[in-house]
Amino acid sequence: MIPANGPLPLDAPSPGSSFTDLLDSMGALPRWNIPPGENAPSAPEGTTVLALRYQGGVVMAGDRRATEGHLVAHRRIRKVFPADRYSAVAIAGTAGLAIDMVRLFQVELEHYEKIEGVRLSLEGKASFLARLVRNQLPMAIQGLVVVPMFAGYSEADQTGRLFSFDVVGGRYEEIDFGSTGSGSRLAKSYLRTVYRDDLSADEAADLAVRALVSASQEDTATGGPDLRRGIYPNVLRIDEDGLVELPDDVVGPLAEGAVETIR
Predict the structure, then answer these.
(1) Do the Cβ atoms of 167 and 137 come closer than 8 Å?
(2) In angstroms, what CA-CA distances link 201 with 18, 142, 174, 257?
(3) Does residue 47 have an active-site annotation?
(4) Cα-Cα end-to-end distance for the chain
(5) Contact residues for 88 (Cβ-Cβ < 8 A; gap 6+)
(6) Could you give the 3-state DSSP secondary structure of residue 226?
(7) Helix/strand/coil percentages in the chain, nearest 5
(8) How crowded is residue 134: how many other Cβ atoms within 10 Å of its Cβ?
(9) Catalytic one among 20, 47, 180, 222?
(10) Rounded to an integer, what distance in angstroms lies between the CA atom of residue 165 and that of residue 149?
(11) Which helix (H) or strand (E) holds 46?
(12) Which among 103, 88, 98, 214 has a CA at the least distance from the CA of 162?
């Protein structure tokens, strides 16, 4: 029996370069369970997030609203996070569990790089994130669903790539763009009409904001830019130079233009 907070016994199997396996071997892996017969607690949920490719990279964006039932729980929640220097992860679903998953994913990638001395491939990162989603299946069955998106720059292919997931951990690579969350169909419908293969990074960021604004017109769980409060979408750009988060003074004008033109 391995003690939950003690060192590993000398004869314990090595967990290798996986930080999650290390936690599991110590009995410290976070686990959530709701007793049979009880309903899942009400918790803030976040939507909508999306990603699209441009020439040489990928843009990922998310709105800032979290809802709890029919109420707005938070207006400034963050849904798009750096995973490492060349990748990002965005969350939709139960906000608290999703943010914990992102933090574990970030530590996992850093742990792997320190142990192995190299970065995990983009394909490997997507596969590991699928494993984390699959581990949440018991919670998803009870109503606490987490569905992320993952995007990054592949150093091997020298191009941007993006992946979507389902609640059972299925992983699917998207060709040009993808979205998840309650407003995802609306966002993808907009992108389907305007997307081009030859987009620049600035054009991709503009389309990402416009797609979120388009989704917010019909989906009450998706928050459009709040120009009065200065609340704008989170937008990240990833290419061969690494990950860059666009500041509000760049996203703000894009949001203002989208609010004026999207009907």
Answers:
(1) yes
(2) 34, 40, 18, 17
(3) yes
(4) 62
(5) 60, 80, 81, 82, 150, 151, 152, 236, 238, 243
(6) strand
(7) 35, 25, 40
(8) 16
(9) 47
(10) 7
(11) strand 45-46
(12) 88
Structure tokens at 120: 């995990």
Long-range contacts of 154-158 (CB under 8 A, 24+ apart): 154/121, 154/122, 154/123, 155/86, 155/119, 155/122, 155/240, 156/121, 156/122, 158/56, 158/240
pLDDT bucket at 143, cuts 50 / 70 / 90: confident
Task: Write out the CATH class of domain 47-219+229-261.
Answer: alpha beta
Instruction: For residue 47, give the nearest of 6, 79, 7 by alpha carbon.
Output: 79
Provide the token pair at 132. 């984390």
CB 15 within 8 A of CB 67: no
| Residue 71 or 174, more confident | 174
What pLDDT score does 16 carry? 65
Q: What confidence tier does 27 reach under pLDDT thresholds 50, 70, 90?
A: low
CA atoms of 221 and 181, how far apart (whole Å): 9
What pTM value is reported for the model? Answer: 0.83
Q: 17 exposed, middle or buried (CB, 10 Å; 0-12, 13-18, 19+)?
A: middle
User: Does the N-terminal peptide bond of residue 48 adopt cis geometry, omega within 30 degrees of 0?
Assistant: yes
How far is 193 from 44, CA to CA, in rounded Å? Answer: 32
CA neighbor of 232 nearest in space, from 75, 125, 109, 7? 75
HEC readout, 52-115: EEECCEEEEEECCCEEECCEEEECCCCCEEEEECCEEEEEEEEHHHHHHHHHHHHHHHHHHHHH
At 3 the pLDDT is: 45
Residues 117-130, mean pLDDT to the nearest whole number:
93
